[in-house]
Amino acid sequence: MSCPRFFSKTATEVVAHFVDSTEEFINLCSKGHLKEAVNRFKSEIWSDPTLFSHLIQSCTLKKSLSCSKQLHSLIVTSGCSSNNFICNHLLNMYSKIGQLQTAVTLFGLMPRRNIMSCNIMINANEQSGDLESARKLFEGMTKRNIATWNAMVAGLVQFEFNEEGLRLLSEMHQVGFLPDEFTLGSVLRGCAGLRGLDAGRQIHCYVVKGGFELDLVAGSSLAHMYMKSGSLVEGEKVIRLMPVCNVIAWITLIAGKAQNGLAEDVLDQYNLMRMVGFRPDKITFVSVISSCSELATLGQGQQIHAEVVKAGASLDVGVISSLISMYSRCECLDDSVKAFLECEYSDVVLWSSMIAAYGFHGKGEEAINLFEQMEQKEFEANDVTFVSLLYACSHCGLKEKGMEFFDLMVKKYGLKPRLEHYTCVVDLLGRCGYLDEAAALIRNMPVKANAIIWKTLLSACKIHKSTDMAGRIAEEILGHNPQDAAPYVLLSNIHASAKRWQGDSELREAMRERNVKKEPAKSLRLLLLNTPAGVPIRVMKNLRVCSDCHVAIKYISEIKNREIIVRDASRFHHFRNGKCSCGDYW
DNA sequence: ATAGGGTTAG
Asked: Where is the DYW domain positioned along the sequence (predicted)?
């Protein structure tokens, strides 16, 4: 049997030729050779206008406005500009190359818009930051598909209207749409933003029900939600159950551990990740450097800095902000400054990091100077910036400046002071000897006091040898936690330094009566005996060593010539022969 | 179409 013949070719040959040439045309488009594609396949395009879609997609990737305009004119000349399919592609192109206005005009001219057209415009408006227009479009739609709901949920979450995103999920469910992996990814991100563990667990049920547990995106989002909401165990479980992990799943786990304070585990996990063969990227570096910063492990920090440079990630503001903090906490302020100055693009967080670094090193003037420069450059300071700035002022005894900034924060920036801000101000007033004002502030502030803020005041009493007030304050702290040894110890030291031995022995009696015990520092002593001089020690968790500094000291920074350097949140303690540089024995 | 990050008081 022979095939019918078209001219000199069989039908099969014609089809084969057609498939071949379409393939070649698509190939040219995907490589960006638009002119060649148009010239060689003019007749094919004219007979099948849907082929224009490939040209449009190529133009979208090129992000070239002139290319897009030429192509658009060509489409108009070909007479298929009323084709919905082509029009939707054009809408998408204009929105992706940042020509929202053109897309809006085109959308307005379309005679028969379909759901797809509206979906594209919802996404386009969201991407250009206009959530309201997206919402209006969404609300005006009589028919929606799953992508419509997904676009709106994603937009709401993107602009941190997380609760509303969750509400929309239940609304879509009510009208009969089951969430897919895209919806779930978005709402889980919303739950993470809300630290909403309960809502997140409910979404987890949807994930299981839809069979998306093993989906990389849904799985990572789920794990991220758990870890951001403080449930590291559940998050880790989700990741471990995933049969295939990619870089993002790894980093989700690493970042989760970093955020939950497991800095040591972060470094282990990071090394493991590299052994398995994943390449770290800038987001990995940020998490890892922050952990080095928390541990004050300079050597590891420097090594990772080198890797950052090698990976070409050294220009990222996020990476640089974490480097500034790491070097500052490792006593290398010069390197912090260097990193700060080398940064080409800057933002609030970068400036805040540098202000914090100066404050950490007791350089109040420099911190203030930087803040003023920041204001001149019209960067909007945030609440964290002010914590660092106030901290810098209090550590340098700059009372007037500090109070001025506190005022500025409330009045000019409209920020509501948090407990951290009040603690800085109490420290500021207390250090400068305004003990009564500091106490009054704690009693009158609109947020609930915690033991830390009272302890801050107690330290100030110690500096100014005010035993009477210290006694009253110690009672208040013990009201928060009667078993806390720190106020007794502080009070005892205050009595001792004021040479009131009577008060001191009464206090020790009270401690015995209430069965309060001060933790001995056995572990540190053992470490010192068993570790050869000059060997760096990485981390010791929950180590209490210095009772005089009244802060739980957590990390050993290094051991040099049998001298141990320990870091707490605000300063370095040098221990030699069992004696701390701040004067206390352990 | 969708996922992961940086600065913060004692």
From this structure: 526-586
